[in-house]
Amino acid sequence: LAGIVRGANRRPAGEDIARGSVAIPAGRRLRPQDLALAAAIGRGDLPVRRALRVAVFSTGNELTEPGGLRAASGIHDSNRVMLIALLRRLGADATDLGILRDEPASLAAALRAAAESHDLILTSGGVSVGEEDHVKGAVAAAGSLAFWRLAIKPGRPVAVGMVAGTPFVGLPGNPVAAYVTLAFVVRPLLDRLGGAVHEPALGVPVRSAFALSRKSGRREFLRVCVTRAADGAFEAALFPRGGSGTITSLTGSDGLADVPEPVTRIEPGDTLAFHPYPTLW
Question: 1 pLDDT band (50/70/90 cuts)?
């Protein structure tokens, strides 16, 4: 017949995946397409790791529960809400353990109790150098502190240690610093604890629309807004309010520009690695 070619429109056995080859590697965080492949090769179930149990505390006498009556000198606890939501997006079983007051003995006791039934303990606040920052001492009393402070901005005062055999991470109290350190410090740890192969976030190249001088020595994450320029290229502009306590700098920007440690000057037209917020989670 006209138009019919011998051998066309065939699907040979094994064209999708050959017998004996790896269909889904160990450590893969399962995606819908992975489930489709498993079904296509006849697998009705797959061996998986259970969700990690993560205990989440906020610390500080100044904190009030959202919806509660706030003292004139106090603030509502926003970090815990954000961290739990992000952890659940990453597939963790996050337990809300409320607000811990700035009392060393009670902090240590709460950490020990959380260690008994969780795979990771996560706190925010209390890890800087203030008189009422007792979390580092409580970790040392209940276990051991591995290190404190990282060359990252925002988010320098991060504390990492062990409490009764359970890993502990203390995040900074400023919301933007807590967000950044959860993405770039805690997420790799979650993958390792959960048996997943960590795949670092890949920055999308965008063009800088701003000039900035900075000190070298710290990896910095700048909140930026991205638009398409007249020539079709994507350009990143700094969000106008850059403090690590301004939550609107997260809600009003599109993502984070990743600036390596050695860079001391950014000029308009320079290429930046851009992390859109959805790709971090």
Answer: low
DSSP state for residue 225 in the 8-state scheme: E
- Residue 184 and residue 239 in contact, taking contact as beta carbons nearer than 8 Å: no
C-alpha pair distances (Å), 273 with each of 199, 202, 234: 16, 8, 12
Residue 131, pLDDT > 70, answer: no
In order of their start, the domains of the chain are: 12-48 (no CATH), 53-193 (3.40.980.10), 204-280 (2.40.340.10)
DSSP 3-state of 274: strand
Distance CA 18, CA 13 (A): 8
Do 200 and 174 contact (CB within 8 A), yes or no? no
| pLDDT tens digits along 143-178 | 999 999 999 999 999 999 999 999 999 999 999 999
Cα–Cα dist 164/182, whole Å: 22
Residue 256 CA to residue 252 CA, distance in Å, equals: 12
Kindly tell me the burial class for residue 109, based on how many C-beta atoms sit within 10 Å of its own C-beta (0-12, 13-18, 19 or more): middle
Instruction: Count other Cβ atoms within 10 Å, centred on residue 258.
Output: 16
Task: Find out whether 148 and 157 touch, Cβ atoms under 8 Å.
Answer: yes
pLDDT of 128 over the 80 cut: no
Q: Which residues pair with 56 in a beta bridge?
A: 96, 122
- Assign 129 a pLDDT band (cuts: 50, 70, 90): low
Backbone angles phi, psi at 73, to 5 degrees: -95, 5
User: Per the confidence metrics, is the pTM higher than 0.85?
Assistant: yes
Instruction: Measure Cα distances from 21 to 32, 39, 43, 47, 145 in Å.
Output: 20, 16, 15, 18, 44
- CA 239 – CA 255 distance, rounded (Å): 10
Place of tokens 């997006």: 89
**pLDDT above 90 coverage of the chain, percent:** 82
